[in-house]
Amino acid sequence: MTEKHHILIGEDDAGHSPVLNRLLQGEGHAVTDAGSAEGVPDRAARAVPDLVVLGWPAGNVCRRLRALAPTRSLPVLVVAPRPGERACVEALDGGADDYVARPYLPRELTARVRALLRRINESESRDWLHWGDIAMDVPGRRVFRGDREVSLTPKEFALLHLFLRQPGRVLSRNAILDAVWGESIYVQPRTVDVHVRRLRRALDAAGEGDPIRT
After folding, report:
1. How much is the pLDDT for 83?
2. What DSSP designation does 70 have?
3. Does residue 123 surpass a pLDDT of 60?
4. Out of 62-66, 88-92, 151-155, 160-164, which region has the weakest mean confidence (pLDDT)?
5. Is the peptide bond before 41 cis (omega within 30 degrees of 0)?
6. Contacts from 166-169 at CB under 8 Å and sequence distance 24+?
7. Pairing relation of β-strands 6-10 and 51-54?
8. The dihedral of CA 200, 203, 204, 210: what is its sign?
9. Can you give the pLDDT at residue 90?
10. Angle formed by the axes of helices 85-94 and 190-203, to 10°?
């Protein structure tokens, strides 16, 4: 049986919001409806959920979530009204961890939700990972570059964790997709580029240098 989590949804489309509610409740989750995407940051700050599902547009809402300490690392799934690479890139650049376009198969959305929750909750065998001046507190889900704490989204954290476990190893986009997103989830290869670019930007925010080579 699926583990019960608290999921907060913010969908401006009144016709689609009940669909999300039914799908997620059918998976055994507790669902709170913020009424709109703009209402999500305030609701999430008052009672931090395990996952946020946002309607479109979501970029500004994602940025507000990432700017607040209690919700900085919340996994965010964006449901966009159209397919295509541009919509995907817009969602990921805004701070989302994953993206699904309508119309979608119900099992696709629930699989992506499970994958996000699984990546956040799975236990790790090593408490700290180090490379150069980068240090990762795995159970605490914190990253440091020298004395500076680096703020990362869950997907960025998972990417860096993959790289730090295998320093110096060359990884293909498909290998990264399988390791971070899972083999059962279809994600466009372009998604890797977007997340790696965001990870680089976070790690080099103070001008320490880009540690990732492609």
Report:
1. 67
2. G
3. no
4. 88-92
5. no
6. 167/131
7. parallel
8. negative
9. 77
10. 20
Walk across the sheet containing 134-137 and list its strands: 128-131, 134-137, 142-145, 148-150
- Cα 142 → chain centroid: 15
CB atoms within 10 A of CB 204: 15
Residue 63 tokens, joined: 């940025």
Q: Is 206 exposed, middle or buried (0-12, 13-18, 19+ CB in 10 A)?
A: exposed
Give the separation between CA 177 and CA 189, rounded to whole angstroms: 7
Report the pLDDT averaged over residues 139-157.
Answer: 90
Tokens of 133: 């001046």
Closest CA to 185 of 88, 122, 102, 98: 98
Do the Cβ atoms of 150 and 144 come closer than 8 Å? yes
Calpha distance 20→32 (Å, rounded): 11
pTM: 0.61
